[in-house]
Amino acid sequence: MSEKPVIFVIGGPGCGKGTQCEKIVAKFGFTHLSTGDLLRDEVKSGSERGQRLNKIMESGQLVPLEEVLGLLKDAIQKNQSNSKGFLIDGYPRELDQAIKFQEQVCPCSLVLYFDVSDETMVKRLLKRGETSGRVDDNEETIRKRLDTFHKHVDPILDHCKEKLSRIAAERGIDEIFTDVCGAISKTVVS
């Protein structure tokens, strides 16, 4: 569906995905797509689909894979003419999502995995929690999120190993971005 590059941006909570995505958008002209933002925007729109998604989320259930795929597909189509590529941030979260995306939407060009130790992610999230007001930025919840993340991400990384670029993300933002640019330039930008 997309003739433009599609990059999965994966990493644990607090690994720096958002910061790096902002820099990629500025340098390469890619469109940043976050499934959380897409879901919230659809609900805000008041559309029939948004009302249906709101009921699902209010009941505490996970939004079905097909609904998320539909939102991503629509966003890619909508931005196809004015984007040089797409960053799919924090998605896929499970192997089945990676497989279905590539079957039903388009192939992934590159997987950027921001590799950070659990201890560093815990420290970063606790620091963020001092000012964020987020209820999930406490050590117990953070460690549970990290366990869940590792359980689900390893099969994705194995499945996508030919397209995988591991970025050591415990360095300075600019050092990390140098490696990100190298991976993108080598793989998806000619």
Question: Mind summarizing the main beta sheet?
Answer: 5 strands, parallel
Mean pLDDT, to the nearest integer, reads 91
Counting DSSP H or I runs of 4 or more residues, the number of helices is 8
Uncertain segments = none
Helices and strands, in order, run as EHEHHHEHEHHEH
The count of β-strands is 5
Structural class comes to: alpha/beta
Major sheet: order of its strands? Answer: 2-3-1-4-5
Shape: globular
Proportion of residues in β-strands:
5-15%
Q: Over all CA atoms, what is the radius of gyration?
A: 17 Å
**Residue share in helix:** 55-70%
Q: What is the CA-CA span between the terminal residues?
A: 20 Å
In short:
With 190 residues, the protein is α/β, with parallel strands linked by helices. It has eight helices and five strands.
What structural keywords apply?
alpha/beta; 190 residues
Description:
The chain has 190 residues and is α/β, with parallel strands linked by helices. It contains 8 helices and 5 strands. The chain has helices spanning 17-28, 35-45, 48-58, 65-79, 95-104, 118-132, 139-159, 173-187; strands spanning 6-11, 31-34, 86-89, 110-115, 164-168. It has a 5-stranded parallel beta sheet, with helices on both faces.
